[in-house]
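Appendix B, example 12.
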Amino acid sequence: MKLKANIATSENGFIFNPATGDSFTSNAIAAEILGYMKSGRSEAEIKKKILDQYEVESNQLERDWDDYMLQLKEANLLDL
């Protein structure tokens, strides 16, 4: 999955969709994931970075990832 090109994000977790005018906030790890997505990293690359950087089990990351991607999809922030 890929973040839509027009989505604006900030390092502190602010997300803005100019097409709809909607804005969201996210925590630091979610903001980091969005940054990786905007830079074109693959899902596998992002997950590896998160697993290497944080103390999280891979099965927990998978559940959290799926949940976060669903939230992004429902907020109309992803190009599918």
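The longest strand covers residues 14-17. The beta strands are 2-3, 8-9, 14-17, 22-25, 78-79.
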